[in-house]
Amino acid sequence: MRSNGHRTYSNVHRERLTFIRRSRDFGFSIEQIRQLIDLGGDGGRDCVEARDLARSHLEAVRLKMAELRALESGLAALVQSCSDRCMGGPPSGCTIFSDLTSQPVALSTAGCCCS
Fold first, then answer.
1. In angstroms, rounded to a whole number, what is the distance separating the alpha carbons of residues 21 and 32?
2. DSSP three-state, residue 48
3. Number of other residues whose CB lies within 10 A of the CB of residue 40
């Protein structure tokens, strides 16, 4: 540590911190980052393991994106329903409230265990 309180890092530490930050930017969990670091430090292992871990994360991201698209579609329908049928009226007659208190409609059943 310098006299001004700033830390100094070696190139190896800077690379490790950059690797961790970039991994977090891609949404990898702390455990996944640990696994990647372990893989990167073990010259006897195959990079296929890293690819498989990244592929698994990619599949999870794609599933989440599909769920978010379904959520977006459902919310857009709520907003449009209000705009088309009751905008400007009393809240008690708003379709948003009636839609939210009616029987739930599944926005997405992808990956759901109870569909």
1. 13
2. helix
3. 13
